[in-house]
Automatic annotation (TrEMBL), chains A, B:
UniProt key word Membrane: yes
Listed transmembrane segments: 6-25, 173-191
SUPFAM superfamilies for the chain: NAD(P)-binding Rossmann-fold domains (SSF51735)
UniProt entry keywords in alphabetical sequence: Membrane, Transmembrane, Transmembrane helix
PANTHER family according to UniProt: 3-KETODIHYDROSPHINGOSINE REDUCTASE
GO terms assigned for molecular function: 3-dehydrosphinganine reductase activity
Protein name (record): Oxidoreductase
Superkingdom, taxonomy of origin: Eukaryota
InterPro entries: NAD(P)-bd_dom_sf, SDR_fam
Gene Ontology process terms (BP): 3-keto-sphinganine metabolic process; sphingolipid biosynthetic process
GO cellular component: endoplasmic reticulum membrane
One Pfam family here: adh_short
Length: 335, 335
């Protein structure tokens, strides 16, 4: 949906990146070597990509997901990325959408490391089910919040409490939102609210957990070519697919690399693609900034470009009216 | 918390407002005269302020809240604002935090008007309970979502479906977020997420409900001197109060006037104070715009001013560390 902006400004971005990178390697980078990292949704997609990357960086890795078979397969992939015989890789099967489930999963992973809370907690679990608002049952909307927000919030809740109890300075909580945590469009009324909510949670915790020396990060990935993406496409409205047709996505490994790079550099809001970076800059508000010069240019690009995008999307939606009315009729939703 | 920015730029804003107002009265304004408006949280605060204003504008007004005594008192206030003997004012006692409760309340108000869904639905219901993340029980976090998001989302859900079934072109759904739907800070981890989620919902519905000719608006009020505000202050952390000490708030009537003015002009994102307007402009992303020139200047103010604000707030939080540790100890939360 954003191809106009890509064509116009990728070159500009490159220049700025080169320019701004000179400011970046001044502060010390975070290294996960020898640390215990905890990754929810670690059996596939972004979570698995991140788990493998952190294994290669020398971390002890705990992954959590529901499906034991997928966890077993993921553990095999972690083994293939092992750097040292000392590294501990463990998988835990838990359902994370309740406070109790998330607390129990974190406790199990802590118990495997002498009862100590992990050094860094990455909440990559979550699913989306795009569909028309008009077609939803109440459960579709509430499950959206459960699978998009609570599944991560409860882990952050348990981890923050335990990190403070153990006075774990330098502990990290890393949430995973989405481009749709910065913006929204037709078809995402059950997904964009939880992803926005995660941003609200991340920004609150960033301000609050600095009291304890705990860092909060939040990642906003674009479309990722994961099993979850294939699942989403089964219910995604045709108009939403049409709007997104020109979008470029990331592989789980690319997204994981972007997430890790942002955490390494200490960025509070992390983006790994150009378009989401434009949205980051133009919705930054008082989010902690990593690179003011870059954000300024991206914000200018947004100021000029996004209104054109908005207008073209609105036009597409309005042009879809008659076809949509037919669709609603076929579903018995209108006479 | 924002006094520096106020001092520096109110004069500038005034100039821009005068300049930009010349663009504004071109399109036809919305008039509620003779329409049926439905207001949740209508027995006090913003909801009551809005109900009285719409009564003065000649609308039929239905208000919904839980407490019957407060509803009765509110009805008396509406009577005092009556313009014509034909106006119908009704009060409905319902609990709105479930899909069923919200649907039943809307149905009751529709039944009082020949079974027709209201012409405009304003979701003003909601409460906040600011507190430290570390002090929360899981219920505090989930109740925050219920009382900040679901209490409005379920009404929007029921109203959108009914408006489409009745093919109610020009129908309006107006959500009420908060300045904390654009930004966040320490103490608001149960409130900022639902208020961000409302923004996600509002932006999704704005894009989707245009299929049916239904308008979606969302209002972002700052501190309002309401009974709810007094309630919030009972649990608000001292550091949050200190950060907010210099903030100026609005009376419920001022906020209602700002909300109405934005709806009248067809603004998708509505703000009624300078600071929230700065946050609106600097978190605009692809939100539909009402005044690009004004937003551009506000965004520049944000680019320069907000980093200073951020730094000063972070400093305040960090300076509070020792005192906070004592507080946690006194509560038995750390050793």
């Amino acid at each position: 949906m954003f191809d106009w902006i890509s064509l116009a400004s990728k070159a500009l971005l490159l220049l700025i990146l080169i320019y701004s990178s000179s400011f970046m390697f001044s502060s010390k980078k975070w290294s996960p070597k020898g640390l215990h990292v905890y990754i929810t949704g670690g059996s596939q997609g972004l979570g698995l990509g991140l788990a493998k990357l952190l294994a290669r960086k020398g971390a002890h890795v705990s992954i959590v997901a529901r499906n034991q078979t997928k966890l077993d397969n993921a553990l095999k992939e972690l083994e293939a990325n092992r750097q040292s015989p000392d590294q501990v890789f463990k998988a835990f099967s838990f359902s994370l959408n309740t406070a109790e489930g998330s607390a129990a999963a974190l406790q199990a992973a802590s118990d495997a490391h002498g009862g100590q809370v992990p050094d860094a907690v990455f909440t990559c679990a979550g699913t989306a089910k795009p569909m028309y608002f008009l077609e939803m049952q109440p459960e579709d909307l509430s499950r959206g919040m459960e699978n998009g927000f609570w599944i991560q919030a409860w882990t952050a809740f348990a981890a923050a409490k335990q990190m403070v109890r153990e006075n774990k300075k330098g502990g990290k909580i890393v949430l995973v939102s989405s481009t749709l945590g910065y913006m929204s469009l037709i078809g995402y009324s059950s997904y964009s609210p939880p992803k926005h909510a995660l941003r609200g949670l991340g920004d609150s915790l960033h301000s609050e957990l600095m009291l304890y020396g705990i860092d909060t990060h939040i990642f906003f990935p674009p479309t990722m070519y994961t099993p979850g993406f294939e699942e989403e496409n089964k219910t995604k409205p045709v108009i939403t697919k049409a709007i997104e047709a020109a979008d470029e996505g990331l592989t789980p490994d690319q997204a994981a690399a972007g997430l890790f790079s942002g955490v390494e550099k200490g960025q509070a809001h992390i983006t790994a693609d150009f378009i989401t970076s434009v949205f980051r800059a133009s919705t930054r508000g008082c989010a902690p900034r990593s690179n003011g010069a870059l954000d300024f240019v991206l914000d200018l690009i947004a100021l000029v470009g996004i209104p054109f995008w908005r207008r073209s999307v609105d036009k597409q939606v309005l042009a879809h009216r008659a076809e949509h009315r037919e669709y609603l009729r076929s579903k018995g939703l209108v006479d």
